[in-house]
Write a sequence for this structure.
């Protein structure tokens, strides 16, 4: 089992992922604003199921890679650092849009279609795959037991963090979008706050030695 301290740090990294702009967030907010909270929750269910697909694929892959390739940890850590810095730049670059600046879509989809689109959006989202591949190795140690079970444990933490944050966003998407539209200064603060978290995580990861 992974120590609680390590899990808390990983949860912070997962939080940085979920608050950064991406296909999943854009889809959830657009569905919640245009079709209501129920549609947002159905879409979220599809996204969560998509996470399980990534977790299983990455868990099986990491079990093989980390036990056979000594340089895998360093390579994946470098990828994780660069990816975090890329997300931070995307958040504050000129003309960057906030996740709450969503173009409304007038199409009304059935619950089944909402779930399927959510699942496919999550399953085909490279952001999620890169996060799992680059972050999981930072928190997995052979001494903690099965690499596969540790990967599953980290995946469950990520899902809980993602579900909690996204659920709140679905419930308050329309209200938050209106609030940020009326307060552009806070919209800029939200972007810089997100970028600061991502940059801090990148520095933390860069200074972490293999264990």
């Amino acid at each position: 089992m992974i120590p609680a301290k390590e899990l808390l740090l990983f949860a912070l990294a997962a939080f940085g992922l979920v608050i950064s702009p991406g296909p999943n967030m854009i889809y959830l907010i657009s569905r919640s604003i245009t079709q209501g909270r129920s549609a947002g929750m159905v879409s979220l269910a599809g996204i969560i199921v998509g996470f399980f697909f990534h977790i299983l694929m990455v868990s099986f892959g990491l079990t093989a890679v980390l036990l056979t390739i000594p340089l895998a940890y360093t390579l994946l850590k470098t990828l994780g650092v660069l990816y975090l810095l890329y997300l931070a730049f995307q958040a504050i670059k000129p003309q960057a849009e906030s996740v709450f600046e969503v173009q409304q879509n007038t199409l009304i989809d059935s619950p089944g279609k909402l779930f399927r689109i959510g699942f496919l959006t999550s399953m085909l989202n490279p952001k999620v795959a890169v996060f799992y591949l680059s972050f999981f190795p930072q928190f997995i140690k052979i001494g903690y037991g099965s690499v596969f079970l540790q990967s599953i444990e980290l995946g469950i933490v990520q899902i809980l963090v993602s579900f909690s944050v996204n659920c709140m966003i679905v419930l308050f998407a329309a209200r938050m979008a209106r609030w940020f539209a009326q307060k552009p200064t806070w919209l800029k603060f939200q972007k810089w706050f997100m970028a600061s978290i991502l940059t801090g995580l990148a520095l933390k990861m860069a200074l972490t030695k293999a264990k």
About this structure: The chain has one domain: 4-207. The CA atoms of residues 81 and 202 lie 5 Å apart.
